[in-house]
Amino acid sequence: MTSDLDPAKLPRHVAIIMDGNGRWAEKRALNRIRGHEEGAESVRAIVRAGREIGIRWLTLYAFSEENWKRPKYEIEALMNLLKRFLTAELREMLDNGIRLRFIGRIGKLPQDVQEALKETAERTSNNKDMVLTLALSYGGRQEISDALKEIARQIESGALSSGEISQELIAQRLYTAQMPDPDLLIRTGGEYRVSNFLLWQIAYTEIYTTPVPWPEFKKQEFLEAIGDYQKRERRFGALGED
Ligand code: FPP
User: Fold this and answer.
1) Of these four, 58, 82, 138, 240, which has the most CB atoms within 10 Å of its CB?
2) How far apart are the C-alpha atoms of 34 and 147, rounded to whole Å?
3) Active-site positions?
């Protein structure tokens, strides 16, 4: 199944907006939480597939700043799922060289989830084959405004002058400092929105959308998305080679 892919043209960084859990469940007359549970299975499948084919950076939009507006029971279920995922997958992450990181306003998450995240990040910190980043309590505009606050503080303290502000400097103040920009952004669930995800970082990212809801997005669908990406010509605003 992987043989169709060109190993020389793999996206280095794939970011995913995992959408459609709720609708998947509702269509089956199931509770929305069942959709998130099956969504967690897709997370496992995609992390495994990504590692297998050699994706170096995988970033998943697991909980947005806007998701705090959901009913309390749904938020609690998502937090529990996340904690269960971290515990259940630690062994596999360690065995497969996967490093876990997180971005977002993590201080807003329940204390036990924060601790589980920090512990998993710490225990996997020496792994070098793939970086799995979970965006949690994440918002792109919030990220940019946090970066601006930091830059303003540094200017106020005299550590920085306004003339030193550049694209590179801004990028280094984002939660994703040290990460390459995504090459490919996948959105499942049939919507065509960016939904406040990695706004600065996706300036030149290729976007792939599919109607397949996240709970049905498994290895084969992921490989299809990568295959589609490989057919594209990336010009970054310049002219093509022909
Ligand atoms: C969008 O579906 C998905 C989310 C809000 C959360 C994503 C969470 C998971 C996939 C499970 C847990 C995560 C990890 C990392 C184990 P939606 O509820 O917005 O779907 P809808 O648009 O159909 O209602």
Assistant:
1) 138
2) 36
3) 19, 67
The response to whether residue 85 sits with its C-beta less than 6 Å from ligand 1 reads yes
Would you say domain 8-139+181-229 falls under CATH 3.40.50.300? no
CA of 168 relative to ligand 1 center, distance in Å: 32
CA distance 224 to 58: 16
CA of residue 126 to ligand 1 center, whole Å:
29
End-to-end alpha carbon distance in the chain: 31
Closest residue CA from atom 18 of ligand 1: 22
Give the start-to-end residue ranges of the domains of the chain: 8-139+181-229
For 25-91, the three-class secondary structure string (H helix, E strand, C coil) is HHHCCCCHHHHHHHHHHHHHHHHHHHHHHCCCEEEEEEEEHHHHHCCHHHHHHHHHHHHHHHHHHHH
How do the pLDDT tens digits run along the chain, 242 residues long?
455 899 999 999 999 999 999 999 999 999 999 999 999 999 999 999 999 999 999 999 999 999 999 999 999 999 999 999 999 999 999 999 999 999 999 999 999 999 999 999 999 999 999 999 999 999 999 999 999 999 999 999 999 999 999 999 999 999 999 999 999 999 999 999 999 999 999 999 999 999 999 999 999 999 999 999 999 977 777 877 65
CA distance linking residue 123 with residue 126, whole number of Å: 8
Q: Which residues share a beta bridge with 4? A: none
Query: What does the alpha-carbon distance between residue 191 and residue 165 come to, in Å, rounded to a whole number?
Result: 35
Structure tokens at 6: 């060109």
